Amino acid sequence: MPWRRPVLLAGIVLCLGCGHIVRNAPNHPGAPFDFESPPCQPAGPPAGPPAKGAAVDVRYLGAAGLYLRWGDDSILLGPFFSNPSLLRVLLGRWRANGPAIERGLGGLPVSDVEAIFAGHSHYDHVGDLPAVLALAPRARVYVNRSGAHALAPYAAARTTALEDGSGQWVWLTGPGGEKRPIRFFAVPSEHAPQIDHYLWAKGPLKEDWREPWTSHRFYDLKAGETFALVVDLMSSDLQSVRYRFYYQDAANRQGIGEPPSFPDGHPYDLAVLCIASYDKAKGQPAAILKTLRPRHVLVAHYDDFMRQQDRPVRFVSLLTDAKVETYLQTICRELGCGSPSGAGPTNPVCGPSSSRWTLPLPGEWMRFPALSVNNSANQPK
Ligand SMILES: [Zn+2]
Description:
The structure is a single chain. By secondary structure, this protein is α/β, with parallel strands linked by helices. It has a single domain, classed as Metallo-beta-lactamase, Chain A (4-Layer Sandwich), CATH 3.60.15. The protein has helices spanning 4-13, 86-91, 98-104, 123-126, 129-135, 145-150, 152-155, 162-165, 286-292, 321-335; strands spanning 21-22, 33-34, 55-62, 65-70, 73-77, 115-117, 140-143, 159-161, 169-173, 179-188, 227-234, 241-247, 270-274, 297-300, 357-358, 365-369. The strands form 3 sheets. The protein has a 7-stranded mixed β-sheet with strand order 8-7-6-5-4-3-16. A 7-stranded mixed β-sheet has the order 9-10-11-12-13-14-15. The N and C termini lie far apart (55 Å). It binds zinc ion.
């Protein structure tokens, strides 16, 4: 239908269908949760560190961005704060918003971060990396080959393409090359179209960029191959998995982006799932939930990343209240929300949350409990 795409594009420009309400939030009984006027502030950092190996602290940064701290180790996934307007994205050249990045990373010891990840290289996943990398001089960068090409002027020596380690466990290492208690496994995946069957800025970059990004357009940051990640947080002796999460920064079709089963048998403690465009990814989120059977779901990439940071939160373009409702109901149908899972945040969060899912507010902290050692099905290898 030739009229369909222009109508959908107009919808994005006018933010038609940008919902902002979760009808049933068990942590806010009796009233719908309106992201435009939330009844509380995003939860701050939990007081004091957790007992070693007992919990992981996670901060939702907005879009597909996460900061994660496991004992003495910390990583970033897809940090993005600049939120250029649609007009700038379509017509302007790349520019990062320094004050927004500073605000978004405020209070985080970014200089200690050991690794930064992105599953694909659209601007809302890697677009702030030149600025973030300057704040995180120790961090290795794990992006797809397109992202590695784009980052060549900024971080060639510390970037690894996910394609190079795909299908095997890759350990983070310290300054002396020693293993740190975090490892990841990159799973080839796919990126659902954003509009109709259309995927914006698709395809790979084939050569290293030589110029600073200011001479490029946002559209020049091509998606490249999309990866999902399995990340294991390990015991301090590195022998067993203490916490396992799945990270997806683009919705994928049924049967794609599903990790193999691992012999250790450790369950998925958390699945970070991308809700944006999920309705264009056949069979989702049911299929990925059936495969992973996660103990809890962190619903990410729901917030409009074209809004100015000081504007109220709405859902990404074309994500309606009804679509969010269907998504959350699917999680409950697949995983069961009736009884406590013991896997949700142990601190009170402001964003809507149930025993099986949480939609954290941008900037919100969550402390997720690891299974007690006795409960863990995990066997040393
Ligand atoms: Zn994307």
